[in-house]
Structure formats: C-alpha cells, structure tokens
Write a structure and sequence with these properties.
This protein has a domain at 1-66 and 249-369. Helices cover 70% and strands 2% of the residues. The chain contains 17 helices and 2 strands. The longest helix is centred in the first third of the chain and has 34 residues, at 82-115.
C-alpha cells in the first residue's frame, strides 16, 4: 500500500498529464517519412521553434523519466520478500507483458494491411522497418520486442519493454539498495545517465537510473516529499534553465539533462497544490483511468495523422505549423479518451485485458503497474 492518501492522489493525478507530455514529445518533428522520401516544412520563426522546443523537448521530456521513477517507487514500496517479489512478477504478466504483446501485434498487423493497399502504402513504406511481407522470422521477433533495435514496432512500448527488464532485475536492485552501497549506487547511475555512457541496449540508462531512484525513495526512512519545501526555488531554477535551453536548442550539450534533473522534482511538487484544487483533482482522477489506453493507442495514429496532414497541407508559415502542432495532439487525445470511455461501456473486460487493468478503484490499478 502507498504510505499516505496524499501521495496516492499525487501519483494518480500525475498519470494523464504525463501521457499528454508523451504525445507532445512524439509530435515535435516537422518532417514525416513517406515512400518517396521525407516531406517537411520550413519556417524561420524563432518564436514558433521556441514554443515547440519548450513544450516537446523541455516540459514533455520529463514525462518518461518521471514515469520510471513512479514505477520504481510503487514496485519497491512495502516489505520485500521472495514470495512478494514472485507475486508482483506474476501480476506483471497481466499488467505489462500481455498489453505489450497485444499492441505490438496489432501495430504490426496495421502496418502489414496498410502496406498492401495502394492508397495507404505511401504513408507506411520507407519507414524504419522494411515491408512486413519481406520479414524473416528474426524480423518478426525484433519488431515485437526490439531485441536488436532501440524500439519495438509500436515504438512507445520501449518503455514497457525496459520496465519489464527492470522488474526482472529487481532482486539485484534490492540487494544493492539494502546495503550501504545504496547511495553510491544511485549516484553512479546518475553519473552514467548524465554522461550517456551505457553499454547495454536495454534497459536504457534513463530507465535504469530513474526506476532505481524511485526504488531508493520507497525505502523506509526516505520521503518523496522531502524536496517539496524547496519546490518554489527548484521550479524557478527549472523555468530559467528551460527558457535558456529553448532559446539555445542543442548548443549546450548537457543542459538537457540538467533541465530534466530539475524538472522531475518540479512536476512532482506541482502535484501538491493540484490535489488541493477540487475541480482539477476530480478531472485528473477521471482521466487517469484512460492513461494507459491513450499511451498504447496514440501511435501509430499520431504518425498517420501527421503524415496525411503534412502531405496534404504542406504548411509553410509559422502560424500554420503552430496550429498543427497543437491541434493534432489535442484532437487525438480527445478522440482516444472518448473511445476509451465508449469501449469501457461496451467491452469493459476487453479494455481491461489490453490495458493490463481490472479497472477496480484507481489506486489498486496504479499499484498494479
């Protein structure tokens, strides 16, 4: 169980905003790959680029690290025993592995069908993966799991793949955290993440560091609210660094990691005031149940919508680019939330199956992750 009701609520209301961040993160590029090559748009508006970078490469970049931290915190919360570990491992077969396989198989089927239809193959041919009809057995395995590739075919599921790997490695993590090596272990992972030195394909260094950081904070005597008293100061530093990073994108090599390092405690601190806003809290709790479905279904839909609109409209002005940048993810999010709500009324068991949740009360669903 979570340590207190407020922490439970703060984690719960965080889920959907982080998913919104993931969608905007994937919506950043203004070029899309088609069969005949890249179709892109050019603009010379500094402010348009600043806004897009500020949101997608700044605020939204915090979403995945914070998700891993929350996952590590929830997995290691409470007493540790062999029996409890294997119980959690068994539960992850339902909450992680089954949805992972379902959505990757579904995405692969969508690609196969679309590539075989002349009217749609232009939007799928020439992508990262070769045509599905030419797949070998190894290609199918690689597409499903991303064994030798950075991503599986449903590329957002690299998060779930890495999370499953970290769950399997949890006994080793517990061994290191249960000794005096805990803090040096976390600091070493931080150094590896910050320097991007990591010899392992997956789990990634980002996944490993933030998952283990969450696990460290779940340890008795540690507090996830310790930095809250410094929240306004951390937020101020984060905002200043983010503005600098957005004004000088990619010119300061390590600034991106510094922004994330300050952004994670900033977003967590902001959940404190949010739980005291009754209407906002109620809305975010309602949206929370759709979080995993939106995460799973937003790709390849987002990719398809972006390819069609960019090819047909070819926006060149800054205003048009910014309009597409906001309207595409917002409309997609509304569509997926409404679809999730409709499916829950029609086939609730199926929605639970593909989302890895029984849709009991929110907190139990949260802890199942």
């Amino acid at each position: 169980m979570l340590r207190d009701d407020e922490t439970s609520l703060r984690i719960e209301i965080l889920r959907f905003p982080l998913i919104v961040g993931v969608v905007f993160l994937h919506n950043y590029d203004t070029t899309v790959p088609l069969a005949q090559g890249l179709v892109g748009v050019a603009h010379n508006s500094i402010w348009v680029e600043f806004v897009r970078f500020f949101i997608s490469r700044g605020v939204a970049a915090i979403a995945v690290p914070l998700f891993f931290a929350v996952s590590g915190y929830l997995f290691f919360l409470g007493e540790w025993s062999r029996e409890k570990f294997f119980g959690k491992l068994k539960r992850r077969l339902r909450t992680l592995l089954i949805p992972f396989l379902f959505w990757n198989v579904l995405t692969l089927a969508v690609f196969a069908i679309a590539e075989s239809i002349p009217q749609t193959q232009i939007y799928f041919a020439g992508s990262v993966w070769p045509p599905v009809r030419s797949f070998s057995r190894l290609d199918y395995v690689n597409a499903l799991f991303g064994i030798t590739a950075k991503f599986p075919v449903a590329f957002q599921f690299w998060f779930i793949r890495d999370l499953m790997a970290l769950v399997l490695l949890a006994p080793a993590t517990h061994f290191l955290l249960a000794r005096r090596s805990a803090l040096p272990f976390i600091l070493a992972l931080f150094g590896l993440w910050f320097s991007t030195v990591w010899p392992i394909l997956w789990p990634s260094v980002e996944a490993s560091f933030f998952f283990c950081l969450g696990a460290y904070l779940a340890w008795p005597g540690k507090s996830v609210t310790y930095l809250d008293k410094f929240g306004p100061w951390i937020f101020s530093v984060f905002l200043g660094l983010l503005i600098l990073h957005s004004a000088l994108p990619d010119r300061l090599p390590y600034l991106h990691k510094v922004v994330i390092a300050f952004g994670v405690p900033t977003l967590w601190w902001l959940t404190g005031p949010a739980v005291r806003m009754a209407k906002l809290k109620s809305l975010l709790i309602k949206l929370s149940s759709a979080s995993f479905f939106v995460f799973a279904a937003h790709e390849p839909l987002l990719m398809i919508i972006r390819k069609v609109l960019y090819k047909q409209l070819l926006p060149t002005g800054g205003a048009a680019i910014l309009a597409l940048y906001f309207s595409i993810p917002i409309c997609l999010l509304l569509f997926l939330v409404l679809t999730h709500r409709c499916l829950l009324k029609i086939v609730p068991s199926f929605v639970g199956f593909i989302s890895g949740s029984s849709y009991r009360p929110h907190i139990s669903a949260l802890e199942a992750r």
